Hints:
- This protein is an alpha/beta fold and 248 residues long.
- It has one domain (2-246): Rossmann fold, CATH 3.40.50.
- The chain is built from five helices and eleven strands.
- Strands 1, 2, 3, 4, 5, 6, 7, 8, 9, 10 and 11 form an eleven-stranded mixed beta sheet that branches.
- Strand 3 and strand 4 form a beta hairpin.
- It is globular, with a radius of gyration of 17 Å.
- The mean pLDDT is 94.
- Residues 84-86, 159, 164-165, 181-183, 206-207, 209 line the site of hypoxanthine (HPA).
- Hypoxanthine binds next to strand 5, strand 10 and strand 11.
Amino acid sequence: MIGIIAGTGLEEIEGLQARRELQIATPYGPPSAPIRAGELAGVPLAFLARHGRGHALPPHRINYRANLFALKQAGVRRIVAVAAVGGITTGMRPGRLVFPSQLVDYTWGRDHTYADGGERPVVHVDFTDPYCEGTRGMLIDAAIATGIDAACDGVYGATQGPRLETAAEITRMERDGCDIVGMTGMPEAALARELAIPYACCAVVANWAAGRGAGPITMEAITAALAGGTADVMRVLVRALPSLHAMP
Ligand code: HPA
């Protein structure tokens, strides 16, 4: 099964056939929402709303460990994480899709590992390349094939939220090499790696990051940009799913 972790702007997936709901308990508590399983483009899919039903969970309250563990339990072998982000560098304009290849983690205080003492032995997973290159490549191919103008590379900076950043924080992030900024990319990507699930991110730029656009960032502008971007995400997913499913 292919897992889709969906964020702001994509709480529900349209066109899912043979839908059923999976209630999965984990040693870490319940996931954000029941997993919706079904088929899209003939491919078995497990869909999880990262922020829960009704978008009730802020980024720092999401039980990332339960989410990833539940997807693994459901039989998910590959994950595409859809995430709204702010655009920092040139070209990362609202509405654009970005497939990041690297990340920088600025989050704190989140349950960020399964190697947390207790009975599990300590493991230090390799995280040199935080995203699965094969999965990323399939998403990029699908975007090109559907004629969507996407950024095929970029560095994702994961911030704590839920507040947006200051202009100076964004300037610092740009100095650090970040192209886009979001609040949920970590520890999600690292937990997927610990569970050995190939994971890639399809980011949708919702707004210019703080200090990069004209005036303050409004929820109205974010919602408007996400509407167009989310339609592109669906086109990429439908196109990419058969090849993702065929990957070993
Ligand atoms: N910053 C952090 N996270 C975000 C943003 C942002 O500007 N936009 C959407 N998610």
